[in-house]
Amino acid sequence: MLRIRRSSPLFRLREGAQVATRVDFHNAGPDQIPGLIVMSITDGACAGEDLDPVRDGMVVLINASDEAQVFPLAGSALEGETGFTLHPVQRHSADPLVCESTFDGAGFSVPARTVAVFEQAQAGAQGDGLACNTKEPEEPEPSPGEFIVPVFLRGEMNDWGTAHPLALAADFTYEVVVPLEARSYQFKVASEDWATYDFGKNGVIVAPGDTIVLERPAGNIGLDIPVAGNYRFRVSTATNILAPELAVEAAP
Ligand SMILES: [Ca+2]
Question: What's the 12 CA to ligand 1 centre distance in angstroms?
């Protein structure tokens, strides 16, 4: 696979925008064939710069299933595309199974447990190539929910540790009461692994009485405590668990 990767700059796209425009996935939706990934990388005119002088595009099929699979072009964004040949590294592969991957004009056939790389050769100047990906990136639907792992108030009040877990106090409402000194703090709301959940808010300093919508990824939240005492942190996931609300209030 390394030799294939080295063979074309299309396998080494660096910028997110290039990936979003040039890379597309085709075996998706309700009719998808299980265990098969079909990815195209275009170097056609719609993509801008002609990155690979000898190709207009590539199609990579990953058949993770135990059976040979056929991916028909009809009905996919690749419909009408033609001129695919198996990558030369695979065509000359010592593995006889890999060479059995074929394109017959109507679709791709890939043996069981095989990655097949097809290229669309470029004749002279940059061709139209494969279509670009025009799908909008999918935003998760705002929806209520419960955290799947424990979430903690983590900041300078507890050395960024897990001493202050947020406990479920009502439906979609988590709370913790923390004694604080009169000073300013930095904090976040996060899971123990800092990965499952890591909520912050850029450029915000909250004070008792404030409610903010948390974000991820985002930096630390500032906190100004004017009077020493107990303070309640209430996190609501009732609107959107990926952007929960945080309220801070005195808890006398
Ligand atoms: Ca090209």
Answer: 14
